[in-house]
Amino acid sequence: MAFLLKIKSWLYAAGAALLAVLGFMLRIKYLEKKRxxxxxxxxxxxARAIVKETERKxxxxxxxxxxxxxxxxxxxxxxxxxEDLDIVNPNDDW
Length: 94
Hints:
The protein is an all-alpha fold. Helices cover 82% and strands 0% of the residues. The longest helix has 77 residues. The chain is rod-shaped. The N and C termini lie far apart (118 Å).
């Protein structure tokens, strides 16, 4: 009878160890999945930051070009050099 109790206790211990290992493996898989999602989110946010920075640079360059073009037109108007302006001449054929 004592022998059966000893075998039974060993089986319980082996089952508990097996459940612990299984739980540990499931936890590792869960953490790996979360890590992969975090890496993907990180890449997305990094790409968005790069796009936003690029858009900001393009907008800044566009404003600078527009400002310089307006300054050039104002200078030409002050110097009365209207023929050098890039203004479309209105059509007088009404």
